[in-house]
Amino acid sequence: MSMQFFPSRTVSIYMAKTFIVRAFAVLAALVLVLQFLDALSESGIILAHPGNTQADVWHYISLRTPQLVARFLPYSVLLGAIITYSTLNQNSEVIALKASGLSAHQILAPMIVAAIGMAALSFAFNDRIVSRATETLDAWKKVEYAPVPIDHGDRTNVWTKAGDDLINVRHVKMTGDTAALTNVAFYDRDAQGRLISTITADHGRQEGNAWRIWPARKFDVATGKVSTLGSVLVAEGVKPSQFTLASVNAEGLSFLELRSAVAALKAAGRPTKSYEGELWHKLSGPLSAVLMPLLGAVAAFGIARSGKLFIRAVIGMSLGFIYFVVDNFALAMGNLGAYPPYLAAWAPFLLFLMIGEAVLIRTEE
Questions:
Q1: Does pLDDT of 2 surpass 50?
Q2: 327 or 265: whose pLDDT is higher?
Q3: Hey, where are the domains in the chain?
Q4: 197 close to 218: Cβ distance less than 8 angstroms
Q5: pLDDT of res. 151
Q6: Which residues of 22-58 are buried (b: 16+ CB within 10 A; e: fewer)?
Q7: What pLDDT is recorded for position 153?
Q8: Can you tell me the distance from the alpha carbon of 322 to that of 342, in angstroms, rounded to the nearest whole number?
Q9: What stretches of the chain show up as alpha helix (H) in DSSP?
């Protein structure tokens, strides 16, 4: 058996090039057909808004296409790998490689390396292009394809946390980097979460590392008395961003932006499990492209003349599509809080990595 990890340089480049070309050819075909169908269904809604023209339809297509590319790239890698394996098997090229002393893993190595490159490209594409397109398209859809109003950062009925204490603000108005608070309620609690007192005020603004609220009125739970405090400092350490956090669109944020949003939500005392699962899935999702050559490898081995090549190709496709079903199910369970974030993002990848290895070893001969 050859001691080198890859086949010869010529064979490695040939296999990787064939795999990449076919994967992107499948991706282009899928995106073209699906984008055509999607544009047909949405163009009527877009043009129904007064003032929208054909240019708005093309604008929609430019925003929707990156989403389709990101969603179907792993499927395209799977189908490209199976097509490449089937061709190599049918032309007896796999038999020639095995006769030269190469193992199954050595034969797959060039395509695995190519898939790693495609996964890195997918992550960069998702992080820099897809997230921005998704954020813009979601905002446009919310107003039913009308002109999107400028978001000045104003929020209503905001809850946040300062240590063990809770703060509720009826209205937050942003002016630059500062926030003006209206109708503030500060709930002073002990370490066990029991309410000690409540301070309410009509107005509030940031002062140093805390917030000054006025005119303040305090209700003491133990005595049941109400007292007037005038102006008082509360919520030390609370940042203005904690008052302006709205619902986070995980798909519309890059990896670093989502990580910052999760940290801010944690500081505000809000639940973050679903967002943490989405955060780690931004890594495991593109990395699924590395699994596809392994899951589809069942089509590479076995004698083509036995008539089972088609069955092997179907088995490879089935393994790949089952992975996507399990991955989406785990992510949904993570969003519901049933699975821990790391488990929801990484368990399907690790599970099918072991399944792919087991199937490869079992079906190699």
A1: no
A2: 327
A3: 9-147+275-363, 155-244
A4: yes
A5: 64
A6: bbeebbeebbeeebeebbeebbeebeeeeebeeebbe
A7: 64
A8: 20
A9: 9-48, 54-90, 93-99, 104-125, 131-142, 241-244, 255-267, 273-295, 309-336, 341-363
Identify any residues that bridge with 213 across adjacent strands, giving them in sequence order.
204, 232
pLDDT value for 92: 79
Across the beta sheet with 165-175, what order do the strands follow?
155-162, 165-175, 178-189, 195-207, 210-220, 226-234
The pLDDT value given to residue 323: 93
Task: Choose which CATH entry (2.40.160.180, 2.60.450.10, 3.20.20.70, 2.40.400.10) describes domain 155-244.
Answer: 2.60.450.10
Distance CA 40, CA 257 (A): 33
Q: pLDDT digits over 28-78, tens only?
A: 999 999 999 999 999 999 999 898 999 999 999 999 999 999 999 999 999
Show the tokens assigned to 184: 């503030």
Q: Is 286 exposed, middle or buried (0-12, 13-18, 19+ CB in 10 A)?
A: buried
Which residue, 301, 284, 287, is CA-closest to 359?
301
Residue 238's pLDDT band (cuts 50, 70, 90): confident
- Among all chains, which residue has been given the structure tokens 């790239």? 73
CA distances from 338 to 71, 172, 246 (A): 24, 33, 24
Place of tokens 């926030």: 179
